[in-house]
Amino acid sequence: QVQLVESGGGLVQPGGSLKLSCAASGSRDSIVAVGWFRQAPGEPREFVARLNRGGAITYGDSVKGRFAISRDTNKNMIYLQMNSLKPEDTAVYYCHLARSVAPLDVWGQGTQVTVSA
C-alpha cells in the first residue's frame, strides 16, 4: 500500500515563497513519475509539475519559471518549491504518483496554499 502525505501549505503574501513536501510510504516499485496538481474552488484539478523516473521535468504553463519540483529518493520525499507566488496560485495542492502497476494513480490528501495580502 502506497500512501502520500503532504505538508508545508499555509498563508503567504503575494511575491512570497513556500515549499511543499510529500512523504511517500510503502513500495517504491513501479513508480513511473511523481508530480503535483492543484485545485482551486469551483475549478478542475490542474497539472502543476511532473518528474519522471528518467529525470525529465515538465511544468504547467502557469507556474513555469516560478515553481521547481524535486525528489529525494533516499528519504522517499517529493518537494515543490514555489516562488513569486500570486493570488491565483491559491488552491489545494496534491502530491501524485504515477505507477506502472495497480494502483496506477496514488494521491495525497492535499494541503491548502493561500496567497493573500
Question: What's the SSE blueprint?
Answer:
Layout: E1 3-7, E2 10-12, E3 18-25, E4 31-39, E5 46-52, E6 57-59, E7 67-72, E8 77-82, E9 91-99, E10 105-107, E11 111-115
Parallel strand pairs: 2-11
Antiparallel strand pairs: 1-3, 3-8, 4-5, 4-9, 5-6, 7-8, 9-10, 9-11
**What are the segments in which pLDDT stays under 50 over at least 5 consecutive residues?**
none
Which geometry do the CA atoms define? Answer: globular
Tell me about the biggest sheet? 7 strands, mixed
Structural class: mainly beta
Radius of gyration, Cα only, in angstroms?
14 Å
Tell me how many strands there are: 11
Sheet-strand content, in percent, reads over 45%
Sequence of secondary-structure elements: EEEEEEEEEEE
The overall pLDDT, averaged over residues, is 95
Number of helices: 0
What percent of residues adopt helix (DSSP H or I)? under 10%
Distance between the termini: 40 Å
Oligomeric category? single chain
Give the gist of this structure:
The chain has 117 residues and is mainly β.
Q: How would you sum up this structure, described in words?
A:
With about 120 residues, this protein is mainly beta. The protein is about 0% helix and about 55% strand. The protein has no helices and eleven strands. It has strands at about 5, 10, 20-25, 30-40, 45-50, 55-60, 65-70, 75-80, 90-100, 105, 110-115. The strands form two sheets. Strands 2, 4, 5, 6, 9, 10 and 11 form a seven-stranded mixed β-sheet that branches. A four-stranded antiparallel β-sheet has the order 1-3-8-7, with no helix packed on it. A hairpin with a 4-residue loop joins strand 7 and strand 8.
